[in-house]
Specification:
heterodimer, A: alpha+beta, Arc Repressor Mutant, subunit A, three-stranded antiparallel β-sheet, 3 strands, elongated, disordered N terminus, B: alpha+beta, 5 domains, six-stranded mixed beta barrel, 28 helices, 21 strands, 52% helix, 15% strand
């Protein structure tokens, strides 16, 4: 995991939760959706996507169900569970706090010290 | 957490589904991606390749997914399990030996534990059974250790001892049940009204007895056991109010007990009120227990045994103030003891059972040592393989868990086989008479036993893994690879460990063998004791005459007719009647007062076996006459009061004078002159309770008319095999009264043999255990020496190439085994002495250290060990130097 320097450790789970919170998705759909909502800024290493999905499913943060894909194939669809929704909210808040703090710290000028 | 475990469980049970779906999902991903790439203009072949490359190794991803689901641990376990199973299958000889050893050792332990569990451990089937106690009178100085309790004790104590919530009495009996023509003799109990309240377990249907139902005029009620209710009344729910005929008299059924009701070892099917007359409850009857009536009580929740004891003592002291017998009873050491009911009931068998369990444990220890030795030898053979694997990165944890999985697999399968052996063992114990033990009816092969086997197997698996894992981890990698390439002298530590194991094994087997020898010798010495009469060719049977239809006069007439008819049967030499035959399993002593005998200070009145005899009892039993004459059939018809005493009685009271013509009274007080009995004969002393009965308390034989009891035992001396006369005897009795059965028909020799079952069966089991122990020790010694020889092949070959003689090589190994044997024997002798001490309670006239047994044990152990050593030593001396050196 974390082979790409762009993706901070622990952020993959958050991104997956966000992706499936919008609409039920299959694994490949998650990949596409993350690329799309980050406007191609984030590239998920494909090898770590599925272990992450299984880990989240095992923790009951997302639920899986088999359904039909757009091109009429059997595919495994993931949806957000109530616990997953709570986790996403917490993580988003936590991330925003951290990002604000870091941004504030990085924007500090010498006069303000 | 629970949900997650459930999902894990679901995944584990549908493992194949999990794998299939994971593959499908990943395949779908690749296809979707390929499609997208193709749409963006890449050629299909390139697209497929790129899609696969971008996703990465499927094996790795799947592994990560499984790990994310927590499945990798199980996968690893499964892999280790199948590896262990493969290894065990590859060495069938080792595996078979190990499993057989485990099966036998665990089986022996489970068998004995099943007995210990049901007899000693499992609580009695009543609420809070720990609060139940029994109280009995003891007169140790009069030679009466146990005399039950009297009715008087009961009426004086109940409600007056504040440490008890409830106190009651009972006695066992057998009654003739059923309508005339279809009667059966059944076990019964007569109980006081509060008996069920004391046990806190009463009838499931109906009521218990009332205070008004304790006289012989009003006691026409009965409570059925569950079995009796089902068999006799087909579980009729409206059974209350029905009539049941007991000893010919109808009684009303007022209750049915629950299925779980079982009082101690009793098989009673019918419970009747314990009725008595007012004169039986007077202070004069306070010491008339005679070990017939027993007392139980329930302690208050916060009361202790000591509190109850002191209250009973205080009451006894208070009552003695105006008791004319007080002085005599004090001289006899009278006390009423309060003891826990369960412990008291099994007290006699407890040491034997614990001893057998210790024996089985020793066996298990020997087996365990064997297995560890074999496993160590095996591990030495795999040193190189393991070193290579460790060098390739196998972690220490992995090495340890692999060993644990392997040993636990072995012990679990062994435990399963052990359960089968245990089931067989329990069956064997039944044959050996285990269900006749107190609470022995409860012995069963059940889930509890299976659980014990499982736990024991797992513990053993882990314990076995410790030395093996230590051995595997201890050596440094390079060292191991090197030492093996040199053809291997294994580490000194492992060698000392193996030899230490052999020494302890020999010592344990020695102790078992010596212990079995002591038990055997003790049995032999008990069997060598003369019962005091010629026990061959005697048939005995028990006849119970109900008082209702057979009052005293009718009893006498019955006995007369019986003697007359049996005396004339073909093959009968002589026949007699007694109210308690030797080895009947019943024993009670009563007092006698000898005219002119003055108790000197410190001497107490003595209890004697007192019998009423009719017919030609003494000739039938083969008693020897020491002086005077036997009692004859005529003595029961005459009014002269005569009696016969045995030599122990005569020696005690008249050491310097002839007993003939002396006079005595039946009972603890001197009576009128006319009531005294004149001694007309002295006969040899006979054992009553068993061959190992030590105290010769003396016995008195009265003519039957003067001592009519509940029971009639008939004894017939015959020229035929005694058992063959059984049917004839039953027919004779049925001719006199069709409703009177003859029970307990056994030859006198069978009775004596049966009385020794508590010695014979443990001796047999101990013999069996030590036989197995010897075999295991031989296997262990052989295995370790064979290994030592195999390991030193090169060294031996080298030495022989340099001129060593085969004899030198052989004696080198024999010397090693002799050293091990000597070490084991020294420890074994010390151990035998200690076990002999611990066994004193169950031994009869055998000291803890018997020279003959020690010598015998040393001989057998020496022989077996030497044979086990001889084969490997011989093999060592035949090693060809050329071959040995050419290897590797």
């Amino acid at each position: 995991m974390g082979k790409t320097a762009e993706l901070l450790p622990g952020t993959l789970d958050m991104l997956i939760l966000k992706a499936v919170s919008l609409k039920p998705l299959h694994g490949y759909g998650v990949l596409v959706r993350i690329r799309q909502i980050s406007e191609d800024a984030l590239e998920i290493p494909q090898g770590s996507l599925y272990p992450a999905l299984y880990r989240l499913e095992h923790k009951d943060l997302i639920a899986a169900e088999w359904g039909q894909s757009e091109n009429n194939r059997r595919a495994k669809y993931y949806t957000l569970t109530a616990a997953g929704r709570r986790r996403l909210r917490d993580e988003t808040a936590g991330w925003n706090r951290l990002a604000t703090a870091i941004a504030a710290a990085l924007n500090t000028t010498s006069e303000e010290v | 957490m629970f949900k997650r475990l459930r999902s894990l469980f679901r995944v584990l049970t549908r493992r194949r589904d999990f794998e299939d779906r994971m593959s499908e999902e990943l395949r779908f991903h690749v296809e979707q991606y390929t499609d997208e790439l193709v749409r963006s203009g890449v050629t299909p072949e390139k697209a497929t390749r790129q899609a696969q490359r971008d996703l990465g190794s499927l094996t790795n991803i799947k592994g990560d997914c499984r790990e994310a689901f927590g499945l990798h641990l199980f996968d690893e376990f499964r892999r280790e399990l199948s590896y262990a199973a493969r290894l065990l299958r590859k060495t069938p000889g080792f595996t078979a030996t190990a499993l057989l050893t485990l099966a036998v050792c665990l089986g022996a332990n489970l068998t004995i534990f099943a007995v210990i569990d049901s007899v000693l451990l499992r609580p009695l089937p009543f609420p809070e059974p720990g609060r139940l106690v029994t109280i009995f009178n003891t007169y140790p100085k009069a030679g009466v250790d146990r005399d039950g309790s009297s009715l008087t004790n009961y009426y004086e104590r109940r409600g007056h001892i504040s440490a008890f919530t409830s106190l009651s009495i009972y006695h066992y009996g057998t009654e003739i049940i059923g309508e005339p023509g279809s009667t059966e003799r059944e076990q019964t109990m007569r109980v006081s009204p509060d008996f069920f309240a004391t046990l806190e377990l009463g009838p499931a249907i109906g009521r218990t007895f009332t205070e008004e139902e304790t006289t012989s005029e009003t006691d026409h009620v009965a409570i059925l056991s569950d079995t009796s209710w089902r068999q006799r009344y087909n579980a009729d729910p409206n059974v209350l109010g029905r009539q049941i005929r007991v000893n010919g008299v109808p009684r009303t059924v007022i209750g049915v007990l629950p299925p779980a009701f079982r009082f101690l070892s009793s098989d009673a099917r019918l419970f009747l009120p314990l009725a008595s007359r007012a004169e039986d409850r007077t202070p004069l009857q306070r010491h008339s227990g005679g070990n017939v009536i027993q007392m139980i009580a329930r302690l208050q929740p916060d009361a202790t045994l000591a509190q109850a004891q002191s209250e009973i003592d205080a009451q006894n002291t208070a009552l003695e103030v105006d008791d004319p017998q007080a002085k005599m009873m004090a001289d006899a050491g009278f006390r009423s003891l309060v003891v826990p009911l369960h412990a008291d009931h099994v007290a006699a068998i407890r040491p034997t059972l614990l001893l057998l369990q210790a024996g089985a444990m020793a066996l298990l220890l020997i087996g365990a040592v064997n297995l560890v030795n074999l496993l160590l030898v095996r591990a030495s053979g795999r040193v190189k393989e393991l070193a290579v694997r460790q060098a390739l990165g196998a972690s220490r944890g992995y090495v340890v868990s692999e060993v644990i999985v392997e040993t636990t697999l072995l012990t679990l399968v062994g435990g399963l086989l052990g359960l089968a052996v245990g089931a067989g063992g329990i069956h064997l114990l039944r044959v050996l008479g285990a269900d006749r033990l107190p609470l022995g009816g409860r012995i069963a092969f059940d889930a509890r036993l299976a659980l014990v086997a499982l736990v024991a197997a797992i513990i053993m698996g882990i314990v076995f893994a410790v030395p093996i894992a230590w051995f595997n981890l201890r050596r440094h990698l390079g060292n191991a690879l090197q030492s093996e390439s040199r053809g291997g002298t294994s580490g000194r530590g492992a060698q000392i460990l193996r030899h230490g194991f052999i020494v302890s094994q020999i010592a344990l087997a020695f102790m078992l063998l010596a212990g079995a020898g002591l038990l055997g010798l003790s049995l032999e010495r008990a069997m060598a004791v003369s019962p005091g009469f010629q026990s061959d060719h005697i048939l005995t049977g028990h006849i119970l005459l109900p008082w209702a239809t057979y009052p005293s006069a009718a009893r006498l007439a019955f006995v007369e007719t019986l003697m007359d008819k049996t005396g004339h049967l073909p093959g009968v030499l002589s026949a007699g009647v007694v109210n308690n035959v030797p080895f009947s399993g019943i024993s009670g002593k009563s007092a006698a007062t000898v005219m002119g005998h003055v108790l000197h200070p410190g001497e107490s009145a003595r209890g004697h076996y007192s019998y009423g005899v009719a017919g030609d009892y003494f000739r039938a039993m083969g008693f020897s006459l020491r002086a005077g004459r036997f009692l004859t059939a005529d003595d029961s018809r005459r009014s002269q009061r005569v009696c016969v005493v045995d030599e122990d009685f005569a020696r005690y009271y008249w050491p310097h004078a002839s007993a003939i013509g002396q006079r005595l009274w039946d009972g603890s007080e001197a009576g009128k002159d006319a009531e005294a009995f004149t001694v007309v004969g002295v006969v040899g002393g006979a054992k009553q309770a068993g061959l190992t009965e030590e105290e010769a308390q003396g016995a008195i034989y009265y003519p039957y008319v003067f001592r009519i009891g509940d029971s009639v035992f008939v004894a017939v001396r015959t020229s035929l095999p005694p058992e063959s006369l059984g049917l004839t005897l039953q027919k004779v009795v049925r001719q006199i009264d069709a409703d009177i059965p003859v029970n307990d028909l056994r030859s006198m020799e069978t009775r004596i043999a049966d009385s020794l079952v508590a010695r014979r069966s443990p001796a047999l089991l101990a013999g069996l255990f030590s036989g197995i122990a010897l075999l295991l020790t031989a296997i262990g010694t052989y295995g370790v020496l064979s290994y030592a020889v195999a390991q030193r092949r090169r060294e031996i070959g080298l030495r022989m190439a340099l001129g060593a003689q085969p004899g030198q090589i052989r004696s080198q190994f024999l010397y090693l085994s002799l050293r091990l044997l000597a070490g084991g024997t020294i420890l074994g002798i010390i151990g035998s002495w200690l076990t002999g001490q611990a066994m004193q309670a169950v031994l009869f006239h055998v000291p803890p250290l018997n020279l003959a047994i020690l010598a015998g044990t040393m001989g057998v152990m020496g022989l077996v060990s030497l044979v086990a050593c001889l084969l490997p030593s011989q093999r060592a001396s035949r090693i060809s130097p050329m071959e040995a050196l050419a290897e590797e």
